[in-house]
Amino acid sequence: MLNYTLLVHIKWISKKYKLPAGSFFMRFGDKHYTGASVTQHLHVQLFIGVVRTKKTYPIAPLLGYSTKPYTPKK
Fold it and tell me: Closest by alpha carbon to 47, among 64, 27, 24?
């Protein structure tokens, strides 16, 4: 039921604010893995970007950790 409820909320937000597009991700568990403390609840974030142009940059939220360095493409 959680997935359905989350989808309903995202659709409601998209319609209410007339969002053309967006991305969302969730966190749960130990901050040593996720980059933020969310041990007692599910955490969802909705990201709304702008149209991609030569003057825009990727939105890169901390999603966790890796053994390899991250270098964004230019």
Answer: 24
